[in-house]
Amino acid sequence: MSLSKAQSHRSGMWFTISSLVSKDFKLKYRRSVLGVVWSVLNPLLMMCVLTAVFSTFFRFEIEHYPVYLILGTTLFALMSESTGSAMSSIINSASLIKKVRINKIVFPIEKVLFSLINFALSFVAVLVVMVVLQVGITWRIFLLIPLLVYVVLFSAGLGLLLSSLAVFFRDIIHIWGVVITAWTYATPLFYPASILPEWMMRFEAFNPMYHYVTYYRDIALWGNVPSLAENLICMAFAIAALAVGYAAFSALQKKFILYI
Predict the structure, then answer these.
(1) How far apart are CA 145 and CA 50, in angstroms?
(2) Angle 81-84-90 (CA atoms, 0-180°, nearest 5)?
(3) pLDDT exceeds cutoff 70 at 34
(4) Distance between CA atoms of 236 and 241, rounded to whole angstroms?
(5) Which of 42, 54, 113, 158 has a CA positioned 20 to 30 A from the CA of residue 90?
């Protein structure tokens, strides 16, 4: 493929992705009175409910617990929402794939990018809570950019893998819901990592979302700069997931048309 054709191909892919993102955005907020405001209100309301429940019954001694909570839940939601929607993207786009010759990878990637936009809107809620609780917002907040790159690449890799497997094994869709629920409670989103037994902490070393959430809180809540080692760990999870997902998708995509 010549350079001009490659550039044309890439521009065509991004045009398709941006069009799909725009369509999903319009569909999500169609006939909604508050529209995009819900993307800000939803994490705030969930934070209030979870804070009331966990603060009352478990009484965790965590400074600025509402901020601790909303940071963890919004970042985890980025991963769970993007992988969940990417998983069904090929199946849900079956009619289009059968009619038009199109690079199938745009469908799961678009879902991940759309979830990133939703995360950006929910980040407004995070900033509101930080201001209300007088948690200092410093220049270190810009260090979240590498984190978002890690999480998006990790989610894209998982999304590609799940979307390719779901075409052949529809049970994956139901199983993934159980996996996400277990993953939610296995990650210190609502509770401090300090209450975990030693064997569980050894498990957390292999939990990518534990590292990503910790990275997020280190910057936004504690004002720390993540170490080079932590960056390398987060990057390794992202690259490994993307490599596996892309390899699986590339190997199986030619057979999609036979099963969707």
Answers:
(1) 27
(2) 130
(3) no
(4) 8
(5) 42
